Amino acid sequence: MIFLSILILIVAIALPSINQNIRTILYVRISSIIFIYAGALAFNALYIQSIGSGIGIYSGLFQVTVISQLLDVFILVLGSFILIAWPSYSSKINALDRISYAREYSLIVLFSSLGASLLVSSADLISMYLSIELQSFGVYILSTLYRNSESATSAGLKYFLLGSLSSCLILLGSGIIYTYSGLTHLESIYNLISVSENTQILQGITLGIVLMIVGYLFKVSAAPLHNWAPDVYDDSPSIVTIWLTIMPKISILIFLLEIQSQIGNSLLTIFSLSLKNVLLISSLLSLLIGTIVGLAQSRIKRLFAYSTISHIGFILLALAINTEQSIDSFLFYIIQYSLTNLNTFLILIGLGYILKNQSILESFQDIKYINELKGLFFNNPVLSLSLTICLFSMAGVPPLLGFFSKQFVLYSAMQSGYYFIGIIAILVSVISASYYLKIIKVLHTSVNKDIVEDSNSHSPLSSFHSFMISTLTLFIIFFILKPSILLNSTQLLALSLFYY
To answer: What is the pTM of this model?
Structure first.
């Protein structure tokens, strides 16, 4: 569906338009409609009663299941929300540049989302590698979208070179698995693991799986493979950073969950122990590095990069435990992280529009330093309060959404006997609250005298952008009033994944 829609968008790009601003909106809005329509088609597939444990398509390269369709819907709808953040106002970027950026951004986002959608349903090493590369190349290009920016070009080059290294690890691991098993279909590899008694074959497959997992951990910026993330996030434009921090991680984490749920339930402990140890070590390092190094940051996107690394630590901890309860908390944490992070960056981009409108910022729609948020509560209290709520949720303050996600992961860890890493996770969660509070303090207690409110100036935010911020903020606050809406869905997914 998305592939056909890409062709439709290319035709739409060629359509003539008198007003250049209308053409700018056209690309982004058509892309958003494509995402929503593709998500509706994926949701419609849930009503196919015969789908059962899945339907193999393209000679078994992909396995379409109810779970993959649900996650596909989530990815596509989330992608449409991110597209809404595209700038609708700018006084210092000419119309032609705005059109060029909108056109390229929309097409690349569609290709990257196509790769993410295919990765969730991948059932073969070949389709897995092609899907993740389709997603990754789109992300590499996105990070260099603003070609006139030297920092963005540097970030894209760094991301491309290091991302290529991780892709080589994934390809090497896949090659080793094929060398020792002679198979590329994942289901066949899992069956071989269960019945084979050849130690050499099992050790070779173990090595290949570990190399693949290391490559995937790099792509989700898990420690100690995280060094690229702060630089790339900080140097990329905010409209690109919002995509980098959310979309590439969801599909990869879900694919890791499928591998862990299959191999973790294997009777052969060599696989489950090797995979679990890699995930636990990466989780512990992510929790420590993401929290400790984040304390010293003064640039806001670098701070959120280390915050993301810390959140990845919680997600990997839930993934490593591999129980029904931990898978439930894993899925819940991913949804919570995606929605909260999306709302945070939507607010930051919105604040960037406002400051740009007031000629406070030097670069287009980017807030670089925490100090640039000085006194914004007195200038725009609604957006400032929304950002404060998101930061409190990230810190795990009850009764916000982020508190319950961390609670579920920690409860799963304690129930499964992971007391040491559970205590470490509690401590780093408390410590990490300090750098969120630092942003809140700047927002509410310091006054930037350069900012003068102009009641006559129109808001640069689109109506849907404002609606998205308010809706997500209210969901974060009032989740406690009706938690069953989200919890029942994650529990059903966890049951299906754990017992499949």
So the answer is: 0.89
